[in-house]
Amino acid sequence: MEKMRVHLFVYGRVQGVFFRAGAQKRARKLGLTGWAHNLIDGRVELVAEGEKGAAEQFVQWCREGTPLAKVDRVDVRQEKCTGEFEDFSIHEFGF
């Protein structure tokens, strides 16, 4: 099974609309580990890793977001998997 790690920056109305909680729920459902946090400029930053197909599905979900979100853009970088995470967690802010 091929592993994949994605590092995402999500732009738009993505804070205060349960985006991080929705991302956590989706990541856990897909068996991914990582984290999500808000950035001071209004973006949400996320890192997720796991099975390649699951990571790709997660990226697609981030392009849509929660029903209250309005995603304008998602920047995605693929990185080397590290296996450092045990779960998908939410952090309050990342500065």
TrEMBL record:
Keywords: Hydrolase. It catalyses: an acyl phosphate + H2O = a carboxylate + phosphate + H(+). Its EC number is 3.6.1.7. The lineage of its organism: Bacteria, Candidatus Yanofskyibacteriota. The active site is at R20, N38. InterPro entries: Acylphosphatase, Acylphosphatase-like_dom, Acylphosphatase-like_dom_sf, Acylphosphatase_CS. Belongs to the acylphosphatase family. PROSITE patterns: ACYLPHOSPHATASE_1 (PS00150), ACYLPHOSPHATASE_3 (PS51160). It comes from Candidatus Yanofskybacteria bacterium GW2011_GWC1_48_11. This is acylphosphatase. The keyword Hydrolase applies. GO terms for molecular function: acylphosphatase activity. Residues 5-92 form the Acylphosphatase-like domain. The keyword Oxidoreductase does not apply. Pfam families: Acylphosphatase.
